[in-house]
Amino acid sequence: METREIRVILTFSVVLFLLTFPYFHLPPFWDGISFISHAILTPKKHYDLSFAHYGHPPIFFWIFGSILTIFGYSNIVIHILMFLFANLIIIFTYKVSKILFNDVTALSASLLLLFSPLFIATTINPNLDLVMTTFIVLSYYFFLKQKFLAYSIFATFGSMTKETGVLWIITVWISFVISKFPKITYRDGRRNDYLSLFYVSLPLFITALWGLYNKITFGWYIYPRRHPLLDNTPLLHSGVYKALSQFFLINFNWLFSLFILVFIIKSLHKTKLHIFKKILIKSVFSEKSIKLLPLLLLFLLYLLVIVPIDDFKLPRYSIILYPFFFIIVSFSLTKIFRLAQNVFLVIGAFLILLFIQNISVIDPIMLSFYKPNLDTGSELEYNMEFTKYVWLEVQGFKYLKNNINGRTILFDWWNPLHAIESAKNHKGIDFGYGFNSSWKFKWVREFRKNTTYVYFTHKLNNDYEFLKQMCNLSLEFSSKLDDKGIWIYNVEC
Length: 493
Prior knowledge:
Layout: H1 3-20, H2 31-44, H3 59-71, H4 75-100, H5 103-114, H6 117-123, H7 128-144, H8 148-159, H9 165-185, H10 191-218, H11 228-231, H12 238-248, H13 253-270, H14 273-283, H15 287-306, H16 322-337, H17 340-359, H18 364-370, H19 385-403, E1 408-411, H20 414-424, E2 440-443, E3 452-457, H21 462-470, E4 472-481, E5 484-492
Parallel strand pairs: 1-2, 1-3
Antiparallel strand pairs: 3-5, 4-5
Helix pairs in contact: 1-4, 1-5, 2-3, 4-5, 4-7, 5-16, 5-17, 7-8, 8-9, 8-10, 9-10, 9-15, 13-16
């Protein structure tokens, strides 16, 4: 490894650490609670494959469960693990981009990914998608270096972290077969080509065995999701628009998508149609095209297979595409602006914009898209907004710990309720929220009259109006952070 490359990688690592370290004290949020709760139980179940978390493959739970068993539960340990996975994505995005294109593209792709609000937000909350993406980017690097055994190991880890990783091993297998097909088919095929084909096929075989195990144990190959092709429903629906918007529009991605479009139009405009056809035919099976083919096929399969699924709407689900998206964006920028200096001026401007976005500014396009749902948990994953709620909830739990006085707590949204439910399943672990095992709690609509409650809310919504009509509410505690807040009421019915 060159000295300059080491300096670049160390710089990336330091910047990522500085961006994420201020949040290392925060507990897991939303699905992060579920994943960590399940990971802690996994070693206690002796890594039993039948102990499935919503049908997900086991790698995440094995890794995090083992580490937390060794070091004990700690928010710091979880954040360090997530930081290491995210850091590997940045480093190997740089290395992959350098192999595919050049150093300028590699630097800009890694920097854009590093400052992407969704990437940072995903880094500070434990989830399957970022860990899966780490293994996929690592496997792509080793595929490009033609180290197929290493590819096989990391690609298998990717597909066995989350089902979406299956798309990646399919695209790589197709790309490999296309590139090696003449050699493997005819007599001049070398022994190494057959061995390489075995290694590239191995992740598919292992994932197929996992699917067969699921079929025998649970009755399905991959955890069932509602897909239009299986339900005979239209492929185009509101969920498709939302999924595409979450990838191509939010967090200023609409600007980057525009650069790709400009590059394509500019390239087509400069090339006459008959020349373009010759170039296209000649380049389809070129070495560069074969290297890029897994990347392009992954986008295509994601659009065809994942996007139409009706309940696949969370922003983090698209993180698998982000390293490759920014590689294409950076290449487009280098071609549009030609000179490296101009590219970095443009990149620098966008980095400043994205950094501000991370702290306080919401992309106006995204604001118009998400405005009705900005205060619901699953929609908060697009940037650092969710950290405000986590901090506020911790303050609320501290108050409850000293002042609950035997009353039952009423919640009107999922995160604090799930934090308590998960903590009850793990005696001695409060997941960083300050839980007390003696607390009684209910969903707000489960309350009964002639009882005294505590109402813990993050938004004065319809549930608040409902309780106000039925009972006497008196404010006991409130806390605000910027435009977010929590309120704790005494409820007498």
